[in-house]
Amino acid sequence: MLERFASRYLWFSPFAFIVLLPLYHGVGFWAGVTGGVLHLALVAGGMHANRAFTAKDDAVGLLLGPMLLVAGGAEVWATGPSGPPNPAHFNVTVFNQAGLTLGFFVTLLGFAATAMASVSDRGRATAAVGLSGFSLMFVIWVINSAFGIAVYQSPLFALTPAQRPEGFQILRHFLDVLLPVAAVGGYLGGALLSEASIRSGWLGRRTGRLMFIYCLIGTFALPLSQFLLRPAGGSISEVPRMAWVLAPWLPPAMFCIVPYYVGVAGLRQAARPAVAPGGRS
């Protein structure tokens, strides 16, 4: 019964974000960490229920990509709710950024493994382009995250924008401009991964197309929201309705939502022969 629960939990684990958010910010940091560890344990149990750790040698190559995609997404859901970064809680900020970076990196490895295991040349090429897009996102994320942590520790952070060196301000604005590029890369990677998964038989055509459309919206959600929020000037009452509509695509953790579900579907598909030999694949 516990195995069945853990297996089904894989489909709902991103919603752990809703539970962990009040734990981190309402109950306390260590309550959130405890909830995150429990969440990761359930995801590991779900992968074990799908024979991810006990598969035969001929299935390991097919399972590696989905396992990494699932593990990366699970890490993002476990640590992402501790954010957003807050200079007043530097250690929590480091924990948040390190956890997200680790989750993105494991997901990136999942992209690479999935591209290598694709059954067709066209699917392999599509997944490889998706890997390039997600790699672009990861590089920008690491640079921006490292710069942000360095800024929080710098004496310059206590200065007003007018007092900070001009070069510092230029660099900060440049990194802000790069964030929409990172979003485009992350969501483009997810879109192409879903397309490659349709060709590999991991996803049905309708499900894969819905994932593709979701990622397509995500590619312009952050740039468009920044454009819409600029006239608001920080006033919530002046935020356009369209900006609220785009809000679900804005958290960086959402870059991993489609790769995660591709991983869950691939895990089920690749493990099926190990569970029921001769069954439909």
List keywords for this structure.
mainly alpha; disordered C terminus; 281 residues; 10 helices
Structure description:
With 281 residues, the chain is mostly helical. The chain has one domain (2-275). The chain has helices at 2-12, 16-27, 29-49, 57-79, 90-117, 121-153, 166-200, 205-229, 241-245, 257-275. It is globular, with a radius of gyration of 20 Å. Mean pLDDT is 84; it is low at 274-281.
Mean pLDDT: 84
The largest sheet is: none
Give helix and strand order, one letter per element, not per position. Answer: HHHHHHHHHH
Task: Indicate how many domains the architecture comprises.
Answer: 1
> Strand portion, in percent?
under 5%
> What percentage of residues falls in helices of 4 or more residues?
over 70%
SS-based structural class?
mainly alpha
- Summed up, the helix count is 10
**What's the total count of β strands?**
0
Report the uncertain regions: 274-281
**Terminus-to-terminus distance:** 25 Å
Compute the CA-based radius of gyration. 20 Å
What shape does the CA trace take? globular
